[in-house]
Amino acid sequence: MASSIRWRCVSVLLFVVFILSVHCSNSNPKKKKDIRDYNDADMAKLLEQWEKDDDIEEGDLPEHRRPSPPIDFSKVDPSKPQDLLKMSKKGKTVMVFATVSGNPTEKETEDVTSLWQGSLFNANFDVQRFVVGSNRVIFMLRDGSYAWEIKDFLTLQERCEDVTVEGQVFPGKAANKANKEKAQNETKKKKDKNAANRVNKSKQDL
Fold first, then answer.
1. How much is the pTM?
2. Distances (CA, A) of 60 to 63, 65, 67, 73
């Protein structure tokens, strides 16, 4: 009888201790960190949690986190490496650099390249233009697969000296014209020099 009473007392005592421990743990919850005290690591962790919880659509992801579209190598012509470059840049931002000929002012470059951008817009090319110097401009494309078509258009413009795409420099119409004039001048000088030599030789013979 005494042992059963003792066990009951022990059980009641343990129950009271359990209730008190639960109450104490609830009354002292873990203090949360103030958002003003967050450092870069805390902010990065918070951003990761948000991205994990949210279903972000593929188009809303930053470009470096979007999966690249698969390349169908059966459609790639091995004799045209440019086609492979086009396919690899599909859906990626590409910048095309262009130089305006004739030592223009920045205002003149703005006017000339604005006409180029308007023509590209009329041809359904969505490009943004940034003048970065007195004769230099950047055309930014959201879909880099069109960069080479835009390069072909720009190199045919009268005032285009050169176009740079992915580190490759392509001479424009103005550069070709200047080279042609230079070659003609050199040919003319050579002819004049030969004529002068013939005259001098004939004088010496006399």
1. 0.55
2. 9, 10, 12, 28
